[in-house]
User: What shape does this take?
Amino acid sequence: MPNKVKLQRFQWRSRERVAHQKYYFCSCMEKRVRVRFAPSPTGGLHLGGVRTVLYNYLFAKQHGGDFILRIEDTDQGRYVQGAEEYIYQTLAWCGMEPDEGPKTGGPFAPYRQSERKSMYRAYAEQLVAAGQAYYAFDTTKELEDARLQYRTAENPSPQYDQALRLKMRNALTMTPEVVQELLQQNTPYVIRIKMPQGETISFTDMIRGEVSFDTSVVDDKVLLKSDGMPTYHLAVVVDDHLMQISHAFRGEEWLPSAPVHVLVWRYLFGEAAMPQWAHLPLILGPNGKLSKRDGAEYGFPVFAMNWMTPATGELTEGFRERGFLPTAFVNLLAMLGWNDGTEQEIFTAAELVQKFDIKNVHKGGAKFDFEKALWFNHEWIKRTDADLLLDEVLQIFGSKDIPVRDTDQCLKIIALVQDRCHLLTDFIEQASFFFVRPGGYDADLAKLKWNDTKASFFTSFIAELKSLEEWNSAFIEHAFKNLAGSCNLKPGELQLPLRIMLVGGKYGPPVFDIAEILGVEETTARISSASSEFNSGS
RNA sequence: GCCGCGUUCGUCUAAGGGUUAGGACACCACCCUUUCACGGUGGUGAUACGGGUUCGAAUCCCGUACGCGGUACCA
Assistant: This one.
């Protein structure tokens, strides 16, 4: 009987799934899948931003579509030097290069909104002509005053809405003659959308299902600013249309302004042509929305790569510099709010492209857990071949002035210690003793119970090592134990001193493996110099 | 305040009306290891609350609480 229940359920589920897919993707069967990541260049890219890129990228690649980068730099006041270049580098590091963008070019260039400035006004004017938008002449000061004047306990932040617009200086409250006069005098103005009254705007979000809003409580957003630049609300609709975007994924913080965008779509191009929206859940920090501050406070990165704020010189640490592999970074980001329904957690980029499904993205925000991020990175360091790790590791050693002469030796070292590293920077601690001879053993000396017997053992051991027929860990270990036996010493008592001699501390991989990699010259040299230091110390 | 979106172990999550509510991170214990790790085995630990609907609810509905987001000529 349970079988029957299961079977029915399965059938129901598959039907549902087909219906679901048809629902979401029927229109795009005719339309090529085109998605965009549209950041504004105001600083470093944080986890949430990169995850938005990732979901866009995965969706595009999965459907054989295009991934477009569009720079939304309509606010000159917030433009930050270097931020755009940072975005390119981050995408490159993560292996998510756009098919079209300011740098790559493409059929819909330019891809920087500041360079598209001249094309937005006509759309705003079209709305004005249709009575769906209007001129407003209120100055910044007047807006501030109005907000103060109409502020009450119940309404602490009055909006430019249906009630307030009738009290302001705009084309709805002035005669056409006055408006004309103001325009002729080159009075600065903005164009605001005129939100209709008591209408319900709803649309289907790919993640949340149907979402609806009452237009009475949405304000008259500015569409075209007084400097002639569009706001996000106009630019996103116009450019998504012009660039033939089929699906638009963005952070959840955009959900409240979605009705504005739906309306602009309806007025300008028709709702049928509108991309399918998906509002991604936020990534949270320890106390709410993840911020740079959280990173600084709790000691983990929030940006993809190091970012220096030009104005202040403040440096914000990135995952790359902290020692994350891009494969791991992408993997952990993908899992922050999505899973494929199985218990698999480690995914390659290719697997993600294959298995990612926007329907399985969560609705709720996810709190970022750095411990789990470390686990992902550890898993990736363990399963990445040493030769693929080499460049990164060499660079890290170089930055710490650790002299690496022999690449082959370095590969062996990486293979030997990679299981112990959670971060690429852990290779410093785990492997630098191979390249830098330890010294200054004072702290360990007392614990070693160094004496003449041990001293003479190591003297003989040096001789033994020099005449070893084959230099590998098994032979070294064999010689060590034989000699200990014939000296009537327990190998256990001697192994720690040997480790201290070779490593300089009570850590590291098996000591005979270390000796093998060090080679006979270096091994015997370290034993001999340490022995003499111990002898003189006692 | 108003509007919107959420809510399963501490954290990330599985579950599509019937499961001893599963997995992962972290934590604890044991094992492995003549170092430190890695690793292995096991354990602690959750359906926010209150009402419905139903033979049966984490799952569907309503309410409450809580959290988050928005409420700019920022994006």
Q: What stands out?
A: The mean pLDDT of chain A is 90. Chain A is about 50% helix and 10% strand. Residues 456 and 531 of chain A are 9 Å apart (CA to CA).
